[in-house]
Specification:
Chain A: Keywords: Membrane, Transmembrane, Transmembrane helix. Chain A: This is Arginine/ornithine antiporter ArcD. Chain B: One of its GO terms (molecular function) is selenium binding. The complex is a heterodimer. Chain A is an all-alpha fold. Chain A is 77% helix and 0% strand. By secondary structure, chain B is mainly beta. In chain B, a hairpin with a 5-residue loop joins strand 26 and strand 27. The two termini of chain B are 31 Å apart. The chains are: A mainly alpha, B mainly beta. The interface between A and B is medium-sized, with 33 and 36 residues.
Chain lengths: 220, 466
Amino acid sequence: MEGLTGAAAGLWLAVVASGVYHGVNPGMGWPLAVSAALMERRRAALWRALAALAAGHLAAMLAILLPFAALTLLIAWQAEIRIVAAVLVIALGAWIFVTKRHARFLARVPPSRLALWSFLVAIAHGAALMLVPIYLGLCHAGEIDAGHEAAGELMGTSVGIAFAVALVHSAAMIASGGALAWAVYRWLGLKVLTRGWFDLDRVWGASLVIVGVVALATAW
Amino acid sequence: MNLRPDPTFYPSPKLAMAGPAETLAYTLMLSPDASQPDGLAVVNVNPQSAEYGQIVHKLIMPNKGDEFHHFGWNACSSALSPLSGHAFLERRYLIIPGIRSSRIYVVDVKGGPTAAKIHRIIEPEEVFAKTGYSRPHTIHCGPEGIYVSTLGGGGKDGTDGPPGIFIMDCETFDVIGRYEIDRGPQDKQYDFWWNLPRDYMVSSEWGLPPQFEGGVVPEDLLSNKYGHRLHFWDLRARKNVQTIDLGENHQMALEVRPAHDPVKEYGFCGVVVDTTNLEGSIWTWWREGGKFHAKKTATIPPEPAKADDLPPLLKGFEAVPPLVTDIDLSLDDRFLYVSCWGTGEMRQYDVSDPMNPKLAGSVHVGGIVRQAKHPSGNAFGYGPQMVEISRDGKRVYWTNSLYSTWDDQFYPGDRGAAMVKADVGKDGGLTLDKKFWVEFPKGYRAHQIRLEGGDCSTDSFCYPSA
């Protein structure tokens, strides 16, 4: 029991940590909040842009997690589902690591539609997919009673966990990205963009692979 | 490969102005009679260097008859928007189209002034097959890659369908395809530029290939058949949302110069000649209440001349038109430079109030009748034409050729290439630098200039200066 709680705590930590990681990455959008505030010459625009980015990110998490929540009903296939999810994450990570390609359709999204852009970028870059192994791990950690729960209850539990994971992750993401945006807007200035923006494509690909490998190793 | 954004990318125009000064300029050389291949000249513009004002490297192309004209970088400050998804491109390649051949060279300039080399050649057939366009012209790097405007459509004389803009991949340089989804009434093309955060683009009109390739067609000009409209586009939706006719007498609306600071929703355009009075004019366009507007905000009068001093084309008018063939705006959006190619004058307007440009400086050099000499004592053939401003706004460079066949009509005979530089006074004013005179190889003419690390007609900024 204690071991399981420890595992769950670790997984929740991963949910928060990945949120912070997504948030501070300029590629996930915080500079757009700075730009909005500067363009409109008022700070309210910064918060509005951050809210749109957060909404898009949250929607992307749910769009990916909820189908997996439904799959948790297939209790007999638990391990297989976790393996497939892990392999998907590894494959996407490897593809990003090797090609460093970006989806061109993202460039067609008008700058005024930040929430849509945030949603698409989180899907395209695998930010949402990264959470799937963590999420399945959490379902597994809390699944001791699964054999005794009715399907409906089980579904309720896994959907509940999916919402909790998406919310906690997105909150961490927007808190860290928002803090950075505010600091740049108020104190640090735009120069930070050229000095503090690192090419994380490879690191990003590698993190997806690592998450997938860890998930694979613990799938049984 | 950079781990951080290219140091020559700047979030805002203000930060770009504070960057280090350029030490190199890249200037296109064209062989007007196609007897030699065109080339790229690398010019030392560092006043501290012993080679100041000299060509330190020439990259000569493997083909003849390209006619180099305009060119641009593969990447610029626009990469610093997360929306681009390409923050880590390098400003490393010059995209150089042949306006006559439709061939495009990608030149790698990394590794110092003498290291410039050809990275890739895109043959005309590829451009024709993938876009249906021909005669590539202006280059800008933007949201979907590298945008290239063209002056011709399909077919041998480029009149099979309208000209337009096409997109190239910013990493592989593959030609992707046409930009326009809905071009509206646009049927001619010249320059284009945009405001990235505000998501609009502006394009202008010169004329169709039969109207310029063999020289200016006087009957077409006098019957107002060259371009005289501005087109405004929803940039990412690729739709023409509004067309403004400047009036058919305002022939050839060429360079489009939006304010660099993306907060500002205005810009300028130069009109070569008003056929009713031979004036050149500057137009200010702006967006207000969701609509675009344009107004003539400055005019430059023709200068009277004796018929004997004029080329056949102009004899009947007994005047020299100023011929506003290029304009360029400093990064602080304060000074607009206006080339008067006919009268041989470079004008500097203070456009702090964009609706009311004020003449702040002027120098005379060259000119059809005036033929003013450069302070170095050299004859400046033709007139001031392609103009480029340093990022800090303190230096202005220009060359003298307009377009091979047009040069010959307005300035008969071969007058030689020239590239000069003027220093800008603190509150305006222009002084030609006596020590800066570039000697070009014989038989070549000089066209557009690009400055190391970006200049005032390359970079698009995604963050305001404030």
